[in-house]
Amino acid sequence: MSEYYNVADIFGENVFNDTVMKERLPKKVYQKLHKTIEDGTELDLETADIIAHEMKEWAIEQGATHYTHWFQPLTGVTAEKHDSFITAPDSQGKILMSFSGKELIKGEPDASSFPSGGLRATCEARGYTAWDCTSYAFVRHDAAGATLCIPTAFCSYTGEALDQKTPLLRSMQAVNEQSLRLLRLFGNTTSKKVTPSVGPEQEYFLVDKEKYLKRKDLIYTGRTLFGSMPAKGQEMDDHYFGSIRPRIAAFMKDVNEELWKLGVPAKTQHNEVAPAQHEIAPIYETCNLAVDHNHLVMEILKKKANEHGLQCLLHEKPFAGVNGSGKHNNWSITTDDGINMLDPGDTPHDNLQFLLVLTCIMKAIDKHADLLRESASDVGNDHRLGANEAPPAIISMFLGNQLDDVIEQLVSTGTATHSLEGELLKTGVDSLPDLMKDATDRNRTSPFAFTGNKFEFRMVGSQDSISQPNVVLNTIVAEAFKEACDVLENADDFDKALHDLIKKQATEHQRIIFNGDGYSEAWIEEAARRGLPNIPSMVDAIGALTTDKAVKLFEDFGVFTEAELKSRAEVLYENYAKEINIEARAMINIASKSLIPAVIKYITSLAESVNAVKAACDCDISVQTDLLKDCSALLAQAKTALSQLEKVTDAGLEMEDGKARAEYYRDVVKAAMTELRAPIDKLEIIVDKKMWPMPSYGDLIYEV
Ligand code: ADP
Ligand code: MG
């Protein structure tokens, strides 16, 4: 490609999108597919055959030899199994390229090695993948050549969801149904469909590939398990929004280019707070597309980094003592005719509708704070949430001064009569104050902040799928809408019932609003006083999935069955123990094979030099001997801690999977890891840098 090009020309060139389908499919087939996409009707095999054929022809023109059902099992990353298009050779030894409708809409990967949390007995190892035609197929180019990727859902033989996509699609249906009910109450007869929109802001670190390859901890676990802070930390905040260096800029250019070709609307990029930390955000899209595209963003970041001699670290906390990475999940609900239900709006009834929507969301978040917290937990995120870093583990909502004041007035007097100064928007209703159009103020410490016309959920981990947070958001909001509609649809006096309901919801759930500093000690105490849950770790959070409240919620809206929820909890406990076990094993390996031998070498050379100096002169050698003593003491401490870590890790392997095992890894194994890290990090500062076998934090984050 020439150096300069028009983005519009390349955008979506690797995607079998609407334009391509319109161009290539017979009109009738195109219309049928559209009906399926819009109404969720099932695609018949005959139509699927024609689509599959055209899709294959198009993919072959792009150089594709293989196709894959691209799906999202409970491992957190995407999975795929590749099949080529070739048929068996005929009698002349010739092959054809074929792809049937059946192959397009349904795949049968051998699913026995994907986590199912006991949902699938080994005798029925088969899993099914089914094409999600609301997410376009695309061709991906990489070392394996070109592959047609078909976004799919993944279910067990008996129809239980084994993936992230199936429940997401179910939750989107729930929001759609209940939002339409709510809109109709306000006289809207035109909107036909309501979908959640999502814009995820992805944070990541970039380090030099060669240095990365010398860090076994980064290779095995995605984070450093040893390492002391460099002399310069991030105290200066001079990296945030700073100018982007040429090497990084060249990487970002390639990332954008590839994402655009894949139809991902990459929009913003900038340096983040920590050195070597950056962010990329696409323009928001329909929820399930945004989830798929976020997986692509993570994939392309890694791939392009590799091509630039870099390594992209998506882990939530690659470096202790340096700011970690998250993913801000911007969420709103929009109708097919362009109404954002979270927009305060500019006509009277829209504003009342907005206040109802707003107080419904307050109710949803307050009632299901535990579920929302759970949806953002993964092993890496435990280093951020509740650990003095953005954001705290307590769920609260930030509304900004104007909206907060509206709620306050509604609660204290039952009617709100005025509003704070600012850019005003007339509600036209005497009992309600005028609203501020934009929440111009910001609160970076809030986990769930209203930002003008959307909510920004800031707890999600950087390497985690954004699927589960959106499943939860969609479902809990659908529930609050449903409950409101149940009341209002049966009211004799709609206006009065509406007024009363807004007031009731604002009053009952005002405790979830917090506009202060979410990082402060005072907030932790205040939140406890308000009775808000403070769930500090992933292991504690998982239980939220299987409470009676959660089972009822998810079953009512057909998002998860109780069996699916239990299986997910089981998978999470298992994953937790597994990941900490890998970290502990990696520490043991690195300490015993590399770091401790290096310290011994250093001590030996120190001892030799002490003897040499002693032999040469009668001068003061106390500095050397003190150093020798310090190092030896720390070495002994490290060796003891290493033995202890080995012991507790071995014991963990003996335990049965489940909550108790996950707790053991969190409480016992992690504590032993900390004990080993402490003396070794101290030694790193003392030992001659030339003898330390791994690049330091400084080497990694300041020399990219
Ligand atoms: P910030 O100032 O927090 O960086 P931006 O306006 O840049 O916010 O948007 C961050 C993300 O939110 C982007 O992905 C953007 O497309 C998305 N976004 C903007 N408006 C909406 C909306 N109404 N619904 C969902 N996401 C949105
Ligand atoms: Mg943001």
Account of the protein in words:
There is one protein chain. The chain has 704 residues and is an alpha+beta fold. Helix content is 48%, strand content 13%. The chain has 22 helices and 18 strands. It has helices at residues 7-10, 18-24, 27-39, 45-61, 101-105, 165-185, 209-213, 216-221, 246-261, 287-307, 348-367, 369-375, 401-413, 467-489, 494-508, 521-530, 538-541, 548-556, 562-616, 622-654, 659-686, 697-702, and strands at 15-16, 64-70, 82-84, 106-107, 127-131, 137-142, 145-156, 194-208, 266-271, 277-282, 285-286, 310-313, 327-335, 397-398, 424-425, 435-436, 448-450, 455-457. Strands 8, 9, 10, 11, 12, 13, 14, 17 and 18 form a 9-stranded mixed beta sheet that branches. Strands 1, 2, 3, 4, 5, 6 and 7 form a 7-stranded mixed beta sheet that branches. It has a two-stranded antiparallel ribbon with strand order 15-16. A hairpin with a 2-residue loop joins strand 6 and strand 7 (145-156). The longest helix has 55 residues, at 562-616. It is globular, with a radius of gyration of 28 Å. Bound molecules: adenosine-5'-diphosphate and magnesium ion (MG). Magnesium ion (MG) binds next to loops.
